[in-house]
Amino acid sequence: MHNRLIISGKNLYIRLMAAFRKINHWIITSIAIIVSIVVLGLLVYRQKDIILEYQWQFKPLPILLSFLIFTIALFWMAIIWGWIINHLGKKLSYRKHIRYYIVSNLAKRIPGTVWYVVSRFQMYTSDGISARITAVASGVEIVLGTLAGILVILIFSTQSLVQYHISPIILIIIFLLGLLLVHPKVIRWIFLRRNVDIDTLNYRLILTIIFLYIFTWILGGCVLFEVGNVIYPISMSDLKYVITSWTLVGIFSTILFFSPSNFGITEIGLSLLLSRIVPSSIAVLIAITSRILLIVYEFIWAGFFLWVRLPDKPPLTQKD
After folding, report:
1. Which pLDDT does position 16 carry in this prediction?
2. How confident is the model at residue 30 (pLDDT cuts 50, 70, 90)?
3. Residues 253-306: pLDDT tens digits?
4. Distance between CA 103 and CA 150 in Å, rounded?
5. Whether the predicted pLDDT of 320 surpasses 50
6. Average model confidence (pLDDT) for the chain?
7. pLDDT tens string 203-239
8. Which of 59, 171, 235, 302 is 20 to 30 A from 103 (CA-CA)?
9. Contact status, residue 200 vs residue 88, Cβ threshold 8 Å
10. Rounded to whole angstroms, how far apart are CA atoms 12 and 177?
């Protein structure tokens, strides 16, 4: 009887904690939505006359270019992801990796940013790759992508950082700490802690992947640049700043990956940064439009891979 009471008490506690976390999540999400609306609304109101007086024109070329660059970046990231998985787990064809990556990418739009990782678990488990391997590969992807973003900021904005009395040394230290985090011995230790013994990435491969991810940040900034030109003319001389803004906001969103909600962070960050080169009200429109168009582009490619079944090439027998 006593043991039953203890078990019942534990079950009740677990249920109450789960309910509390759910309520807490929705409270934080609601606050994030309200703050985002208020901040973006103030930015628009501050220079609302520019929007009211602006001569709007439909510009198909920048939309086409943004979709083309987005497509290149999307497939580039999918191939890098496939490369990571092929070195950590069972080898699959790159066509399958690309399909899994693009389809699971849609889950990022579901509240709670970890859903796309869960969708990867389900897809790769059916191919004999454990959720543990997929989880570690996702962690490696996030860390290496973030390190590449830091390098992009250092390459494009060191002069600006010094101008605003921000020492680049801080970013360099973070970069070096990140390299230690993805050291092959550290990754292997993580696996062994979970009773999984596999081959890990070597340092040469890690540095190569970081180098490849640099281009994903640059391409992402170019997509934002073209989306911006759909709404308002942006000078080519500001392209570096747009790339840096995209990268900075992307890194900050990654840091908040496990937070209950990061709703509106990207829009607020881009609006504040872009307001240095365009009117603040226009910056808000660019940020929101970029969000909408990127979702549309993701749905186009996810829909393609859901409806069209491409034959898989046999997996590679050697490490690529």
Report:
1. 39
2. low
3. 877 665 554 556 788 888 888 988 988 888 888 998 998 899 999 999 998 988
4. 27
5. no
6. 77
7. 888 889 999 999 999 999 999 999 999 988 899 999 9
8. 59
9. yes
10. 42
Q: Which domain holds residue 136?
A: 2-307
What is the reported pTM?
Answer: 0.78
Q: Region 139-163: what's the mean pLDDT?
A: 82
Task: Please say if the pLDDT value at position 312 is more than 60.
Answer: no
Do the Cβ atoms of 156 and 218 come closer than 8 Å? no
Structure confidence at residue 66 as a pLDDT band (50, 70, 90): very high
- What CA dihedral angle connects 288, 292, 298 and 301, to 10 degrees? -140
- Comparing 179 with 30, the larger pLDDT belongs to 179
Is 44 domain-assigned? yes
For residue 225, being part of any structural domain is answered with yes
Q: Which amino acid is at 284?
A: V
Side-chain half-sphere CA neighbours of 282 within 13 A = 22
Token match 């900075």: residue? Answer: 248
Cα separation values, 133 from 121, 125, 187, Å: 9, 10, 11
Residue 269 covered by a domain: yes
Residue 202 has φ and ψ, to the nearest 5°, of -90, 165
- Residue 199 half-sphere exposure toward CB, CA atoms < 13 A: 13
Q: Work out how many domains the chain is built from and give that number.
A: 1
Residue 47 φ/ψ, nearest 5 degrees: -135, 50
Residue with tokens 């050697």: 318
